[in-house]
Design brief:
The structure is a homodimer. The first copy, chain A, is of the alpha/beta class and about 450 residues long. Helix content of chain A is about 40%, strand content about 15%. In chain A, helix 3 packs across helix 12, helix 6 crosses helix 8 and helix 8 runs parallel beside helix 9.
Chain lengths: ~450, ~450
């Protein structure tokens, strides 16, 4: 019978920051079975790791305060790609997703605003229904439309906006939304023109909500110069707060969305008044690097170390079953990942050890770890899961702590120092041995002479 | 009850070549219901159209003779993203997929070769089992290992290859594969060294198969300079054929894979001896343009035309329910797609008509179509599918015919002419009207004075 009852897997826990050429998983079991797992495992690991890393870069670009909202479903590779994107973006550092299925399946907090089509679907104030609502604290119902129109006049006067430029449909849409969701009023304000219509309409409805003791949430900007617009919107909020004595306007938030990339996030973060960014396309498609090249290679058969040589040295693999140790410096920052053969003892804390850089052949290197942790855990043995699966929240906490522990020189977004991945002396000697044997691999022809 | 019983959809048939700003789908029905469909439809249309277009570009780059094999599952956004990639790459012009599930679900022809781990799993000729096989025409079993070793000596002599560089494990792997699949012998030959080991091993096993009246298929190259290697491999095939009098070596194929892009395909196509290309990463992730920006916008409510203005003119939409017509020139090439209001009659063949370019506001344009076709069909009405769904094979035929019909100036890969998409005069006048109304949208405030 063909099943995974003879398969064991050791794996880096989900959410751990890892570096190039560190083996993330080691799968052992009957040769034919583990060969069949190749593409399935690569498919499950590659995109998840890629989008999680991309999300972590967005988080680093945004800093810790800015909220990040994932909006990528419409640009993902189908519904399942979208769910993977939501799950792993959250682990990488995004706060919320617009994918309600991801909320339901994985517990990722869900957030969203309003579609432009909601705004454009309204033409006239006559479409607003109901027109009345109760104040937050209860009491008599108030004509919310009339109340808001009064505020709109004052807002137009204050801001010097021409009343004839305000779009009746946009006001009707905001009114309808405000009546339905007075605690969650966060419209998109760029459907017609932010300054001439969207912003005055928002302020009018929000002021009416404040008068009824509700707290409006804020606005979303989805086009134009987000940085400049956010500064202007913030200043209008301050002006309204000041002029009308409404403190609640000081806690309104501004959400920005519109093709945001890692770079635009860096730029916006420095100068804008945006509190929360919605990111879709560039997050889920990982525009900057749309694929991750994890591979699955044979390292040992029946105790015999194996490796692939290839015509490209980049594609050459390291032989033998391995353990991976992360070495930390005196400040608790990881500084080197060490690949050892699985029968070697772990590196000892405080003792110097010699190792060999992966990239530069026989350059040796002497290091003394202040702390050592084993990167992989046995997660699957004899066909059974042996460690409970991490929840998304646990993986997210692990990812954020793992990234936090990195030295700034390794996690700066531009030109970071290369993190060192090295081999133990024993692994290095094995590599030399397998290479040497490979160059005399054809001796069998001489042996066969006796045939 | 919330369902799609009131929804109707007209759609461009799957596989039709389309151009930017042509509305692919028109969805009508109860406002709240069709608003809920936005993200689902975009998710299903965007990536499918993107990867299909990308595959079509690879097909144009490869020319019509070269076979294209899709190998992208491991770099796709999860299993479902991989299936979408296989399905739509085939429609776009790929011949086969390595995803056997796509073969089963969609009938895409499946093909593949051999993994490097299969090759590296072998060390010694003692692992080859069974060692004997029957000739293709039947008869006494032959010791296939001894037969092949004899051929290997002759090949090494002919090619001037040192026998001690031939990797015993690689020969053992090829022998095992050849015994198991004598009709389908197509190994990957770059595991150790193409020229020193992989190619001589292949020739030896293939010559032994030929001696037993089988037809070996060919080789796969997965690293190094594919162009140069393929030329050398082809010349070795010719040399063997000539020297050993084995004509079957003239019909061997060479498959190339290894991070192939549209550009590398163009380059290889011109000079290499490769018959079939395997493409994964750059196909499924669409590296060149990793997302397609289809949007879903409201165009009409209760007979009232609607549009979004936005702070970015690129994001402005066209109002009103529309039909789309493709206008063909006297040679049968499409030259213009015309957006009309849905109550307009179709453009008449042979009659000149005035239209307005989408991009350049009020530039008008006079054209006379020699043929006219309606681009969209009613596919869903009152909650029911009204046209049978296309099979993958039908969509593929439509796509290939649709691309074939395009004028070369529109489908050349570099700097193609922009295909013209235009509005009818009636649609243009409606657009002007809605814009004008938008600029006086605030009159309601004056109307409200009476309150």
């Amino acid at each position: 019978m063909l099943d995974c009852s003879g398969v064991s897997i050791s794996s880096v826990p989900e959410g751990t920051a890892v570096f190039a050429r560190v083996p993330l998983l080691e799968v052992s079991g009957p040769l034919a079975v583990v060969q069949l797992l190749e593409t399935s495992l690569l498919c499950l690991v590659n995109y998840a790791s890629l989008v999680c890393s991309n999300a972590a870069r967005f988080r680093l670009a945004a800093g810790s305060k800015l909220k990040l909202m994932e909006l990528g479903l419409r640009r993902a590779q189908g519904p399942d790609g979208g769910l993977s994107a939501s799950r792993y973006s959250h682990i990488g550092g995004f706060d919320t997703t617009s994918n309600v299925m991801a909320g339901r399946l994985f517990g990722v907090p869900v957030s969203g605003t309003m579609a432009h089509s909601y705004v454009t679907s309204f033409s006239s104030l006559e479409e607003v229904w109901p027109r009345v609502m109760m104040p937050s604290g209860g009491g008599e119902k108030v004509d919310f439309v009339t109340l808001t129109i009064g505020w709109l006049r004052r807002v137009c006067d204050l801001l010097g906006v021409k009343a004839e430029n305000v779009h009746e449909g946009e006001l009707a849409a905001f009114l309808s939304f405000g009546v339905a969701y007075p605690q969650n009023f966060l419209p998109v304000i760029d459907t017609y023109s932010v300054k001439r219509s969207g912003l005055p309409c928002f302020c009018a409805v929000a002021l009416a909500l404040c008068e009824l003791d509700y707290q409006p949430v804020g606005v979303r900007l989805d086009s134009g110069d987000l940085c400049q617009l956010s500064v202007e919107v913030r200043s209008v909020f301050a002006e309204c707060s000041n002029h009308f004595g409404v403190e609640k306007f000081l806690s309104l938030i501004i959400i920005g969305s519109n093709g945001l990339s890692e770079q635009s996030l860096c730029d916006l973060n420095a100068k804008s008044e945006i509190d929360m960014m919605g990111v879709g396309t560039h997050l889920v498609t990982c525009t900057h690097q749309p694929s991750l090249g994890c591979v699955y290679k044979l390292v040992e058969v029946s105790g015999q170390p194996k490796m692939k040589f290839s015509e490209d040295s980049e594609k050459t693999t390291l032989p033998g079953s391995k353990n991976v140790y992360r070495l930390l410096d005196s400040e608790g920052h990881p500084f080197l990942d060490l690949l050892c053969l699985s029968d070697e003892p772990p590196p000892a804390v405080g003792q110097s050890l010699q190792c060999y850089l992966l990239k530069h052949g026989n350059t040796s290197y002497c290091v003394t770890p202040h702390q050592v942790s084993s990167l992989r855990q046995n997660v699957f043995s004899s066909g059974q899961i042996t460690l409970p699966l991490s929840s998304v929240a646990e993986s997210r906490a692990r990812a954020q702590n793992s990234i936090l522990s990195l030295h700034p020189r390794h996690k700066c977004l531009k030109q970071p120092d290369t993190y060192v991945v090295a081999m133990s002396e024993k692994l290095y000697l094995l590599l030399c041995d397998v290479k040497a044997k490979n160059s005399t691999a054809g001796n069998f022809l001489c042996k066969q002479e006796g045939l």
